[in-house]
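The data layer described in this paper is built around a simple, fixed record for each protein. Because each token names a local backbone shape, the row as a whole describes the fold. We quote a single record here, exactly as it is kept in our systems:

***
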Amino acid sequence: MPEVVAVIPARAGSKGIPLKNLQELAFRPLIEYTIQAALESKTVNRVIVSTDSKRIAKVAERAGAEIPFLRPCHLADDKTPLAAVMRHFLDWCDEVGWDVEALVILEPTSPLRTSANIDEAVELFKKKRADTVVSVRRDTSLLWVMDDGNPRPIQTERLNRQLLKPVYQENGAIFVTKPEVVTESTTIGDRVVLYEMSPAASIDINTWADFRQASLALRSIKIMFHFKASAELGFGHFYRVLTLANRLHYNDVVLLCSEFDDRAAERIGTVGFRYYLSEDPVQIIRKERPTILVNDILDTSKFLMQQLRGLVPLTVNFEDLGEGSQLADLVFNALYRDMSSNSSYYGGGEFAIMRDEFLFRPKHKVRERLETVTATFGGSDPNNIAYYCMKTLPVRYPEIQFRIIVGPGYMHDKSLLRTLVKKLHNTELIDTATDMAKHFSESDLVITSCGRTVFEAAACGVPCVVMCQNEREMKHRHISYRDGVISLGLFNAESSMDSLVEILDELKDRPDKRREMSERSSRIVDGLGVFRVIGLIEKAARARGLMRSF
């Protein structure tokens, strides 16, 4: 019966690194990675190591490979072409009666090539009816060649990397070829199909620097961030996972947005990480099988989390008050403290994850009088608090400059706000701010709803007055005067404005009270929340044997 046979060529001689194939990478001989990947492949029937070394043969056999013979010395020097070694193996197969349908050549110097890579290459070989499949990595660099001693660019135009037509570089990880095209000088037939691999999986070890790079890559794990983002929902969850993803970029980071609009889709596509936009997140998670899944989707159900626990070794949830939170391995709720019986629950401002623009801001200077007040109420502002503030406050306090910021999901008629602005000399309307930290730092007081914006104001050291949009916000634990925040409770169109006026009357000429609020609020967040969260995630992953510590 025809078989798919993997052959791993591993000679003893190596000029760059002596006995390179037996050198340890993360405490394992280099060749073991390739043997293991081949053995775990679903499409490979036999795994053969072709070597001239008894030491390599012994290690390979112990790892599970077959060593049917020792390669002759004349086929084991540094001038011997790979094709000659493969032709020698196929001739031996003919002699002993092995029927080889496809030859899979796996260099042992590609330790990050996986069984999935091998299976995909073999399936591509069969599907395309190719003579040869060659594994490659994409290159969008500006390339030059020497032509009779003169440098000549390969590309005819100098374009930005994103606009360059990609070229493909052989990475040496996988060749799948028909036995009949293999000669003493080539393993490649006429009909060639390219199989593209990631840069990490394409690492080819020839130097000690390559060993170091592979060692770092082996520490990498797949982390998927599942979130929702749209004009109506706001982009806070997206910005939080992006802050985490940027700090964990040395891993295989994948973004998954399960509720989105066109603006979110466009924004997600610009951040440089691999991503999915899908209303069926479980299907994508089942396909990708991440090592760590971070859910930033608010409350989860028990049913969803039961599904995920069967797919992912470690689940991490943010701001989750649902029944599913009890099944998460870690829960971070900066807005809620002590609201879960889950022993791996971490709540409070010390776990607030701030965007970079809010980190390490200069100390806020409290002015003698209120000069600038900024009001902003989240992505959609369901109670239209921005309108009530604009209608009430600028007329009451003509000496104060008011800055009203609405988000992209503002769900009310913006023309009403624009009409009011035209009538008011001391009011500015900002539609979707690009640098909220700058606006807050320039303000003497922030008026907002009771979400993550409170942490952002605190990071800038600015006193804050909050009005809750809904009952969920009423549960937030960072709205007390102890934290430099004055809470007016659940918003009411009539009474809340009266209470807000009373507060402003008190604060406008009380720099001492605003200074006290500023000092208290500055203690809510210290900018280190992202590092605490990452530290706890990595600690949990190591405890489960999911991350290497070498």
